[in-house]
Design goal:
This protein is of the alpha+beta class and about 550 residues long. It has helices spanning about 65-75, 100-110, 130-140, 175-180, 200-210, 215-220, 255-265, 270-275, 305-325, 400-405; strands spanning about 5, 15-20, 30-35, 45-55, 80-85, 115-125, 145-150, 170, 190, 245-250, 275-280, 335-340, 350, 360-365, 370, 380-385, 420, 430-445, 450-460, 465-475, 480-495, 500-505, 530-535, 545-550. Strand 14 and strand 15 form a beta hairpin.
Length: about 550
C-alpha cells in the first residue's frame, strides 16, 4: 500500500489574528478573527459578525476562507473562521457531526463577549460548514440572527439506516465510509482512497488503519455496526427557536436530496417555514455552474479567478443579511424562492416552489425503447443482467464536481445492462420546474436489487446531459414490488429538437456501493453472482416518469 499522504494546516492568514475558544468541556477550538481594516488598522468598534465553522482548514486553499473573509470584511462584517473540534489546529476528537451544536453555541457566546461584537451573529458556508449552521441554529442561541447554508443537509453523511423491517431503502454512497477515513480520521486531511478494482473495501480500510497505527472514531462509529449518535439535542433540528434561513441548493449537487428533505421537514414547522427562503442555482456541490466559461471550469482556480466569482456566491447572502442581521429593508423585499431555469441566464422569483402554473405530465416506457404520453395497454417485462464484475461506471471521477466534467452520458445507454427509453424530439422548448418521480415494478432473481433511474437531455448531435436521477434498494427482491423513486427537483429548459431519455440500471460505480448479487455486504464484499433484473413496462404496472412542466408540451 502506498504511503499515507497528509495535508496539514496552512499558515494562518496575515489578515487575521489567532484565538482559542474554550468549549464547554474545556477543548480549545482554533479560530481566526478578521476585523475590517486589518492588519494595519483593524476596526475594533462593535459590528456584525459572520461565523464560519468548518473541518477543511480555516486557513487552507480548498475552501479559500481568507478570500471569503476579505469579501465580507469589505462589506463591514467581522469574520470568525474556526476549525471544528478534532480538525487541523483544534483540540479534541475528530468525531463527525455530534459536537457541532454545543461547540457552535460556545463559539457564539465567545463572539458576543468581544469588544468588536455588537451581539449580532450570522453564519455562512457550504456542505459540512453548512451543516454546522443548522447545528448552531438548533442550539437556540438568541444572538444567531440568520444563516446561509449551501449544498448541505441536517442528515449530511449519515449512513443508510438498515431496518430489517424495511424492504425498500436508499442505496449507500461510496463516500459514506470513505469520508471518515480521509477528511475526519484525525486532525489532518488524509489523502487515501481504496483500490476500486479490488472491491474488498473493508479489508483495505483495515490495511490503511494498520499503516497509520491507530483507529479513527468516526469510521468505527459507522462500521461494521453503525452507531447513530444523536446530532441534535431535541432529536429534530427544527424543534426549537427558528432562525431566518437563505437555503441554497444546486440542481446538480449530489447532496441535493438531503437539502430537499430539509425543505419538506421545514414545511411542517410553521415557525421555521415563516422565514425560510429558498435559492436554487444551476451548480454542483463544488459550485461549478452549467454555463461556466471554459477558463472557469478548472479544478484549481487562481485567487484572481476566485475573487471574480465571489460576488455570485456571496452577494445573495449579503442581501439576505442586510435585512435579517442589519435590519435594513423588509423581508418582503426578498423573493421567497429565487431559482434559475438551467440552460438560461439569470434568476427567477416565485412565491413558492414549485412555481404557480405548473402541471404534471406522465411519460410511459414501451418495450420498443420509447417514451410516450400514451400508456401501453399491454404489459411486457424487460430484463437486464447485473454483473458485479462488470458494473455500470459512474460518469465522473468525482460526484461532487459533476459540472467540472459535464460528461456526455449517452455512451452509458449503449451498454447491455442499461435499459434506454427515448422520447420523440420536442417541437418547441419545454420548461421543467418542480419534482420528478418514477414508478417502477421490478424484481430480481437475486436477494437484493438496486434500481437506478437517470433522466437525460439528448441534443440533436446525440450527446446527453443528465438532468435528474434517483435510486432505491429492494430487499427480498425475488418478490415483485412497485417502487416510487424520488428523482429530485429540476428547473431546466429542454430545447426544441432535443429528446428526453431515461436510463434504467442496477449500478453506478464507484459513486454508489454495488450489490454483490449474493446479499453479501457491499463494503465487505465476498462471494458474487450475476443477477437477472426485471422491469414491467405497459399495463397497470407500467414504468412511468412524472415531470413537472411550467411551459411547453412533451411529445
Amino acid at each position: 500500500m502506498p504511503d499515507v499522504l497528509r495535508i496539514p494546516p496552512m499558515p494562518e492568514s496575515p489578515l487575521s489574528f489567532a484565538a482559542r475558544i474554550r468549549a464547554t468541556d474545556g477543548v480549545l477550538l482554533a479560530t481566526d478573527v478578521y476585523l475590517p481594516g486589518a492588519p494595519d488598522d483593524a476596526d475594533t468598534t462593535p459590528g456584525d459578525t459572520v461565523l464560519i465553522r468548518l473541518p477543511y482548514d480555516k486557513s487552507g486553499v480548498y475552501c479559500f476562507i481568507p478570500l471569503v473573509a476579505e469579501y465580507f470584511m469589505n462589506h463591514g462584517y467581522r469574520v470568525v473562521a474556526q476549525d471544528v473540534r478534532g480538525k487541523f489546529r483544534s483540540e479534541g476528537d475528530a468525531l463527525l457531526f455530534v459536537n457541532e451544536v454545543e461547540d457552535g453555541r460556545a463559539t457564539i457566546d465567545w463572539i458576543i463577549a468581544q469588544e468588536w461584537s455588537n451581539g449580532r451573529v450570522a453564519m455562512w458556508g457550504d456542505s459540512y460548514y453548512g451543516y454546522t449552521q443548522w447545528a448552531a441554529a438548533a442550539s437556540g442561541h438568541p444572538a444567531l440572527k440568520a444563516i446561509s447554508p449551501r449544498v448541505t443537509g441536517t442528515m449530511l453523511g449519515e449512513p443508510v439506516r438498515r431496518d430489517a423491517a424495511d424492504r425498500v431503502r436508499p442505496v449507500e454512497w461510496g463516500v459514506t465510509y470513505l469520508y471518515p477515513l480521509t477528511q475526519f480520521f484525525d486532525n489532518d486531511m488524509v489523502l487515501w482512497e481504496p483500490d476500486w478494482s479490488r472491491r474488498d473495501f473493508a479489508a483495505q480500510a483495515e490495511e490503511f488503519i494498520a499503516q497509520v497505527g491507530y483507529r479513527g472514531l468516526s469510521y468505527d462509529q459507522w462500521y461494521p455496526r453503525p452507531v447513530h449518535l444523536r446530532r441534535f439535542p431535541a432529536g429534530d433540528p427544527f424543534a426549537g427557536r427558528s432562525v431566518p434561513v437563505l437555503h441554497t441548493i444546486g440542481w446538480w449537487d449530489n447532496c441535493a436530496p438531503l437539502s430537499w428533505a430539509d425543505v419538506e421537514r421545514i414545511k411542517s414547522h410553521p415557525n421555521w417555514d415563516a422565514h425560510h427562503y429558498l435559492r436554487i442555482e444551476p451548480m454542483d456541490h463544488e459550485s461549478f455552474e452549467l454555463l461556466d466559461a471554459d477558463e472557469d471550469r478548472v479544478a484549481e482556480r487562481s485567487d484572481d479567478q476566485i475573487r471574480a466569482l465571489l460576488p455570485r456566491t456571496l452577494d445573495p447572502t449579503l442581501a439576505f443579511f442586510e435585512v435579517f442581521v442589519r435590519g435594513n429593508g423588509s423581508p418582503a423585499d426578498l423573493p421567497r424562492v429565487a431559482w434559475n431555469l438551467a440552460g438560461t441566464t439569470g434568476m427567477r422569483a416565485s412565491a413558492a416552489w414549485p412555481p404557480s402554473g405548473t402541471r404534471a405530465i406522465e411519460l410511459f416506457a414501451t418495450d420498443g425503447g420509447r417514451l410516450s404520453t400514451a400508456r401501453p395497454a399491454k404489459a411486457a417485462t424487460l430484463q437486464w443482467i447485473h454483473d458485479p464484475d462488470d458494473l455500470v461506471p459512474s460518469s465522473v471521477p468525482d460526484a461532487f464536481s459533476y459540472l467540472l466534467h459535464k460528461p456526455d452520458e449517452a455512451p452509458i445507454g449503449d451498454r447491455t445492462d442499461v435499459l434506454r427509453f427515448d422520447s420523440e424530439p420536442l417541437a418547441v422548448d419545454a420548461d421543467l420546474a418542480g419534482p420528478v418521480t418514477a414508478r417502477a415494478r421490478v424484481s430480481s432473481d437475486g436477494p437484493i436489487m438496486d434500481l437506478f433511474v437517470r433522466v437525460l437531455d439528448v441534443a440533436p448531435d446525440g450527446t446527453a446531459l443528465r438532468i435528474a436521477r434517483g435510486q432505491l434498494q429492494l430487499l427480498d427482491a425475488h418478490r415483485p414490488e412497485t417502487l416510487e423513486l424520488d428523482l429530485g427537483h429540476i428547473g431546466y429548459r429542454l430545447r426544441a429538437r432535443h429528446r428526453l431519455r431515461v436510463h434504467v440500471s442496477s449500478s453506478d460505480y464507484p459513486e454508489f456501493l454495488p450489490q454483490t448479487g449474493t446479499g453479501a455486504d457491499p463494503w465487505t464484499w465476498g462471494q458474487t453472482r450475476a443477477n437477472t433484473q426485471s422491469l414491467v413496462v405497459g399495463g397497470a404496472d407500467a414504468f412511468a416518469l412524472t415531470l413537472t412542466v411550467l411551459e411547453g408540451e412533451m411529445p
